[in-house]
Specification:
This protein is α+β, with helices and mostly antiparallel strands and 404 residues long. 46% of the residues lie in helices and 14% in strands. The protein has helices at residues 23-38, 40-46, 51-59, 78-91, 93-109, 117-130, 252-283, 297-321, 330-352, 354-357, 363-371, 380-394, and strands at residues 133-137, 155-158, 163-172, 178-187, 193-200, 206-209, 223-232, 237-242. Keywords: FAD, Flavoprotein, Oxidoreductase. Residues 140-230 form the Acyl-CoA oxidase/dehydrogenase middle domain.
């Protein structure tokens, strides 16, 4: 296994708890956006894990943002987490996506009574003190995403020493940079249990296979992670239950958090594309025009369409983060915001032509990144089918009107 060079994170004493409101916090987030943006192109080219970005976020206390205050975190609400994710994603979206997964895990961790209390506290304090990252690894080569059903091929065998975990996970967002994996697997018991098994990155038998080479979001390092007879204590079966029982891995509140934070990443990518377009239109002055492109009505109209799409996104996401959108609409939030973000970046590319697709400019990178919004669960077909089924189930049947 080859490892990317990862600078050590600062000591706990160097991490500064964030002030979550006011001009100081706003200025902090603006500075973080600018600093992350300076290295975004290099991360996109190399596909390396953005370790320096997470060291920066740890110094600002932002890796413990959704850890409860009682355990040393900020105990932030969804609206605050959205602000941070937006600021990070406008600078470097791969970092933001890894951070989303980390935030989602910690936001619901302390409410999950299936976890032993000492493990919940250990994982939380690791995030506070060391900036340790956490994510769930669920997708498999044969099964795909468990969101559409099925049992995992990854197996935990119960032995006298503890669990022996073997299997393979793909699309493992963060891979090299994660300290803790929650691996979705099934036990080998006569009545198998299914759920999350907690694995530390330094456990023998773990191998990261560098196969993530995608069009966009390249710095997420979403490589394959293979587990071969990885030994785990028995209490590291942290969130398992009978295979035949329903497995609601996320409640309604968690689904809304996921929809808001995931799509905030891609909405922020579209915002960055919009900002680049504004600067381009203001600075580009063709010789035959003798004035900036911004003076032409057709570019003003195009920018107006982009800003209207982003206004819709901002309104929907802010309302959802404030608790004004029911969790039942989480899938629709994801679909609408993602579609608007993609459309906004496409409009920017159409407006400028060749410069928008040149690798010398960031717009083509923003386009590649925003397209990745489509792959996240739930996909459009699942969203629309569920909405349609709900509408048909709730609507009373009335006789169709007849013509005279």
């Amino acid at each position: 296994m080859s490892l990317f060079s990862t600078p050590s994170l600062p000591a706990a004493s160097e991490a500064v708890p964030p002030r979550l409101h006011g001009p100081t916090f706003d200025a902090q987030l603006q500075a973080i956006t600018q600093q992350l943006a300076e290295g975004a192109a290099a991360i996109d080219r190399s596909g390396a894990f953005p370790a320096a970005n997470f060291a920066l976020l740890h110094r600002h206390g932002l890796l413990a943002l959704t850890v409860p205050r009682a355990l040393g975190g900020a105990g932030a609400d969804l609206a605050t987490a959205r602000r941070v994710i937006t600021a990070v994603a406008r600078g470097e979206p791969s970092t933001a996506l890894i951070l989303v997964m980390h935030y989602l895990q910690h936001a619901r961790l302390q409410d999950d009574s299936r976890w032993p209390a000492h493990l919940r506290e250990r994982v939380a304090r690791d995030a506070v003190l060391d900036g340790a990252l956490l994510n769930a690894l669920r997708v498999e080569p044969e099964l795909g995403s468990p969101a559409r059903g099925g049992l995992p091929a990854t197996v935990a065998r119960r032995t006298a020493e503890g669990w022996r975990l073997s299997g393979s996970k793909i699309y493992s967002t963060g891979s090299y940079g994660l300290t803790w994996y929650v691996v979705w697997a099934r036990s080998d018991e006569a009545e198998p249990r299914v759920g999350g098994f907690l694995v530390h990155k330094d456990s023998p038998g773990i191998r990261v296979v560098e196969e993530w080479d995608h069009l966009g979001m390249r710095g997420t390092c979403s490589h394959r992670v293979e587990f071969t007879d990885v030994l785990l204590p028995l209490d590291h079966a942290v969130a398992v239950g009978p295979a035949h029982a329903p497995h609601a891995e996320t409640n309604d509140e968690a689904l809304l958090w996921m929809a808001v934070l995931l799509t905030s990443v891609y909405d922020a990518v579209a915002q960055a594309a919009r900002d680049w377009l504004v600067a381009f239109l203001q600075q580009r002055t063709p010789a035959n025009l003798g004035a900036p492109l911004a003076s032409l009505p057709r570019f003003q109209e195009r920018l107006g369409r982009i800003d209207t799409l982003l206004f819709a996104n901002r309104s929907l996401l802010d309302n959802a983060a404030a608790g004004q959108v029911a969790a039942a609409h989480a899938g629709q939030v994801k679909q609408l915001v993602s579609s608007n973000a993609i459309a906004a970046v496409e409009l920017a590319i159409e407006a400028v032509g060749n410069p928008g697709l040149s690798r010398h400019n960031p717009l083509e990178r923003h386009y590649r990144d925003v397209l990745c919004s489509r792959v996240h669960t739930p996909q459009d077909d699942s969203v629309f089918t569920a909405v349609g089924q709900a509408a048909l189930a709730q609507t009373a049947v009335h006789p169709l009107p007849t013509s005279n």
